[in-house]
Each structure stands twice: as C-alpha cells, then as structure tokens.
Design goal:
About 35% of the residues lie in helices and about 25% in strands. With about 350 residues, the chain is of the alpha+beta class. A six-stranded antiparallel beta sheet has the order 1-2-3-10-9-8. Strands 4-5-7-6 form a four-stranded antiparallel beta sheet, covered by helices on one side.
C-alpha cells in the first residue's frame, strides 16, 4: 500500500489538506492554483443517475460521460502535475510505475476506489501503455475518464481506453496510444474568480483542515471515503468535470437532461440521504455548503412554508437544486415545487414551495 500519511488528530490524508484550501467564501480551491475548485459530494448515486438518463433517453451514455470526464480531468490535473515530473519520466529518472503510483495516490485520496498498476511500458513511442485495475470504483464511467485524463496530463498524449469487467466490483482497463491520434483538446475551463466571504470553519489544530472532516473516514486501502454517522460514500470531485459532463449529455442526446438530473437528485436526498440534524438550522446549512465547497449562502429563508436562498460561487447547479429540494421534502415531509435561476456571475437562486 502507498505510504500516505494521515493527520493524527482528525484522520484526513495530508495530501488532501496540503493541496487544497477551504476559503471563507464557501469554496475549496487548489493551493497551487486558487482559480481551480473542488467539491466533496456523495458518490453512491452517480451510476444510478447515469443509468436513469440512459433509460429515459434510450441511448448509451457511458462513452459521453467518460470522454467529458477525461477532458475535464486532464485540465484539472495539468495544473497539479509539475513539469519536472513529466521531464523526469521522459528521461527515465522516474519510471512508469512511479508515475502510476502518483495516479493511485490521488485516486485513493479522492475516494475513487482501490486503483493498482497491473502492467506498464513507457518509452515515449506508440507502443506505450498502462493497464490499471480498480475495485470498488466510485463510478465506472467517471473513473475511466479520470484515469485517462490523468495519464494524458502526465505524458501529454492522447490515450485510448479498453475496458474489461473482471467481476461486478473489479475492472481492468488498458490505456494505450491509439492508432489514429488527434491533438489534445482540453475543455474550456472557466477559472474561478475569488470573492469575499465571512464563513469561518473550525480548523484542526494539527493539519489546519476543517475540523468537521473528522466525520469523514478515509479507508486508503480501498480508496473509499465514508461519512461516519451515516455510512454514505463520498468523493472529492473537480466541478469542471460534472458541469461540462451534463452539458455534453444534453448536447449529444437532445433531452431534458437538467430536469432528469434535478429529479433524480431530489429523490435520492428525499429518501433519507441526510439526517435531520445536518440541516436543521440556517447556520448549519451555511457550514454544510461551505465544508463541501458548494458555495456561499448569502441569503436564506427556510421553514415549513418553503425555502428561498441565494448561493454565491455556486457549482453543479442542477445537483444543488435537486439536493436542496430533496432536503426540504425530507425534513418537512412535504411534496414541493421548485424554481431556480443560475446567473452568469455564478449565483444560484432557488425558491421551493409546497404543493397546494
């Protein structure tokens, strides 16, 4: 197993707190590039969501999801992989297995599953390849794209993906140089412009990360993060993955993808994903969103008669809308309707009212 130190006080991997910062404006950003954000989110409903979209549209969605994820991950990881590492890999100072270990390190720390290198070759020519095996993937389609994008960020070349299912929970994937190559085209990344905020999350006195993350348990051997009191599986996502992914699905399939995503997320949350104690007050709601990097709740009115709030620095608006509606219905036991708007400035306004 990879040596990945955990904070002795809160149990958070040092890799997580060393490479990310929780800001007072409700966001999590890369410490190396504060214009690139990250979120913490439930992962156990992702494949169910994708399956639901496929059932509604009657079309396969995995290739679209994997390709969008690959391009977004490549953009995200390009700012994390030092040029020195790329150079040392080309000159042989670092072998391909050492580079693979770096990929494994990030995958496990992010909660993506247990990733291992089965075989690899890197000579800088068209015969290069790496075979990865992963068990308990947080999402098969997403992890294929995550690994492919990370490999491309390291070697600066496009790779093909050949997937083989070993068992229901184990997959082996060949990443190789395709016969027909194309120039790498990253997605258009909309860089985050920091705004002010006054949220102060209590910090761990040892590592400086949010103290509330002590409720998140990292099983690094499995590459799994679970929320302690509920057992829900979590992961750390680059929002530049999810938002373009939904846009790609809508563009390719021509369906009401926003409506499908909101409804699926609403049902998932309404059926008891959270405990009432997590969302019982306005201050808890603000800290809940800030801890996960979802944004800064500037204004909030919440009660049995409905919810209205404005979220600055919002990300993944479709999932946040469905999540918020599901929370309301779960807490109050009421069916609801929702109206929302997402502005160019990144403010998400949501109004939820009960059905008459």
């Amino acid at each position: 197993m990879i040596d990945m130190p955990l904070c002795p006080e809160c149990g958070i991997p040092e890799l997580v707190t060393n490479t990310h910062i929780w800001l007072g404006n409700g966001t999590i950003v890369q410490s190396a590039n504060t214009q690139i954000r990250l979120i913490i989110h439930e992962s156990q409903n992702l494949d169910q969501l994708f399956a639901g979209i496929a059932n509604i549209t009657g079309k396969p969605v995995e290739p679209i999801i994997t390709d969008a994820t690959r391009r977004a991950t490549r953009a995200y990881m390009s700012s994390l992989v030092p040029d020195e590492i790329k150079s040392q890999l080309r000159t042989g100072e670092i072998d391909v297995f050492a580079a693979g270990e770096m990929i494994i390190l990030f995958a496990r720390a992010m909660g993506y599953g247990n990733v291992t290198v089965v075989a690899a070759r890197y000579e800088g020519d068209d015969d290069d390849y790496v075979v990865m095996r992963y068990t308990e993937p947080y999402s098969v389609a997403l992890l294929d794209g995550n690994i492919a994008g990370t490999v491309e960020a390291v070697i600066d070349r496009e790779v093909s993906i050949t997937h083989k299912e070993i068992s229901a929970d184990t997959h082996e994937v060949l990443f190789a140089i395709p016969e027909k190559r194309s120039e790498l085209e990253n997605i258009e990344v909309e860089l985050f412009q920091p705004t002010k905020g006054d949220i102060e999350l209590k910090k761990c006195s040892t590592c400086g990360g949010p103290a509330a993350l002590c409720d998140y348990k990292w099983d690094l051997g499995r590459g799994v993060i679970n929320l302690d009191h509920s057992g829900r599986r979590m992961c750390m996502l680059g929002p530049i993955v999810m938002d373009p992914l939904f846009e790609a699905l809508e563009s390719e399939l021509g369906e009401d993808i926003p409506g499908v995503v909101i409804e699926a997320q609403r049902r998932f949350v309404r059926d008891g994903m959270y405990s009432v104690t997590e969302v019982r007050s306005e201050s808890q709601m603000r800290e809940f969103f800030a801890l996960r990097g979802l944004g800064y709740i500037r204004e909030l009115r919440m009660g049995r008669k409905g919810v209205w709030f404005a979220l600055d620095n919002a990300l993944m608006p479709l999932m946040v809308v469905g999540q918020t509606q599901g929370m309301y219905e779960y807490v109050f036991g009421i069916e609801s309707r929702v109206e929302w708007e997402f502005t160019r400035e990144g403010t998400l306004v949501i109004q939820i009212t009960p059905w008459d």
